[in-house]
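Dear Dr. K.,

Following up on our conversation at the group meeting, I've run the structure prediction for Peptidoglycan-associated lipoprotein from Shewanella surugensis. I'm pasting the input sequence below exactly as I used it, so you can double-check it against your construct before we proceed with anything downstream. Let me know if the numbering doesn't match what you have in your notebook.
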Amino acid sequence: MDLNKLFKAMLVVLPIMAVSACSSTSETETDATSTNGTTSSESAANGVQTGGVAPIVSPEEQQRLKFQELRKENVIYFEFDSSAVSPQFEEILKAHAAYLVEHSNVKVVIEGYTDARGTPEYNIALGERRAKSVTKYLQGMGVLPSQMSIVSYGEEKPADTSRSDAAFAQNRRAILVY
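The predicted C-alpha cells came back this morning:
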C-alpha cells in the first residue's frame, strides 16, 4: 500500500473514531455493551476485543486469595482407627490457621467423624480424638484455644452410607465449620 492510500484511509477512520469517542451512549447501546466496554457489534466488526487490562495482583493479595481458596477445603481425612493428621493436609490446615490467627474474633467448630465399624461408644471417642488432633495442630500454628470448639458425631451423619472401603474412607474425617 502506498502512502497516499494509507493517508486517505486514515482520513476516513480518524473522524469516525473521534465521533464515536465523543458521542453519548443511548440506553439501547448501554444494554448491548459487554463487560469489557465494547458492544458485541463492535467486537464482531473489528475482530478486536478491547476493554480493561487485568489488574495486577500484589503478592499479598495473591496469598490472601490462595488462603481463601484453601479454606474452601475444610475436610481432613484420617486412616482407619487413627487420629493422626496426615502430612497431605498440612497446606489446608496452614490456610485455616493463618486465617484464624489474622481474624482472632472468628470461631471454628471442628467436627470429628468415623466410619461405621466399631461400637458407637468407641466411635464417639475416636471422632473426639480426631477433632482434638486437628485442634492441637491449629494451636501449634498460633490459633487461640478460645477460637476453637470440638464436637464428635462418631459414626452418625456419614458422608457416604454405603458399606464399601471407599465409603468408609469418606466417613473418617474432621470438618472445620465456621
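Two things stood out to me. Helices lie at 3-22, 27-32, 40-46, 59-71, 90-102, 120-140, 165-171. Residues 13-44 have pLDDT under 50 and may be disordered.

Best regards,
J.T.
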